[in-house]
Amino acid sequence: MSASTLERTARSRRSRTRSRSVNGRPALALSALKPHQYDLRPACASLICPDCKTWVPITGLQTKKPKLVPHDNGRAGKDAAVRCRLGSNRLVTVNVTVKKWQERLEDGGAETASRQATVVLPKAFSPQTDRTLRARAERTLAGRVADWEAVLPRVADADKNRRAVPAGDRPTEGPAVPLKTLHPKRPAR
Known about the structure:
189 residues, alpha+beta, four-stranded antiparallel beta sheet, two-stranded parallel ribbon, 3 helices
């Protein structure tokens, strides 16, 4: 048998909703969505499923009951195919015209394009802060080690003064310090 050299093409079919099953949840109104969350162009009428956040085609846009296509909620080629139970076969109420959708989309684009990023100005440094930062940037590891070694005797003196106990059995202010350790005894039963 010889193979056919003609290229096979699929015959054109009527655009219709393939499944008769309908999701029990209330219909999803397009007017409740933001204009960037759905697309009403006839070639690719689709919207973002509010449950799984994936773009889903709308079938039967010209019929009485347009609805979302049964779809998976995972990323294509990345996650396991898990059917979106909440959004599949959900009815869609098309209560926005294509012209009105385009106007809203263009208005939103113009609004966001007119925004300007704010420039964050650095806070002015005081002369002391500026000197400190410059000195810190110029120091090397050997310089920092030398600084610590110069400070260590003063730190040791401060620790020794902190540990010193004042003369006498009483602090200058407050009650007398008990010299005998107290061990309270429990009453006998």
